[in-house]
Amino acid sequence: MSRVHAGSSWQVVAAAALATIMSAPGQTAAIAVFTEPLLADLEISRNALSTSYMIATLLGTCAMPLIGRALDRYGVGPVMIVVGFFFGGVLMLLSLVTSL
Known about the structure:
Structural class: mainly alpha
Helix content: over 70%
Shape: elongated
């Protein structure tokens, strides 16, 4: 069993905190803040918004086996960097959405 150095524990905590913050746009609690503005701006029903969120969540789960294999093969650091870039790119593209 490897031993964690005392100086590296803060790095693990910082990385975990950053990963948690980065995942907020994909979390239901963070998205809930934007429900009313999304309904008004996109002029859609609550049911349509919920259905689109469900579909996006299910599609997102399709990537999990690939990400799991990449984690096993390349490690957490490199995979988190790639996932972070893709997630950021998707969020930038979502800012251009004008309809469902």
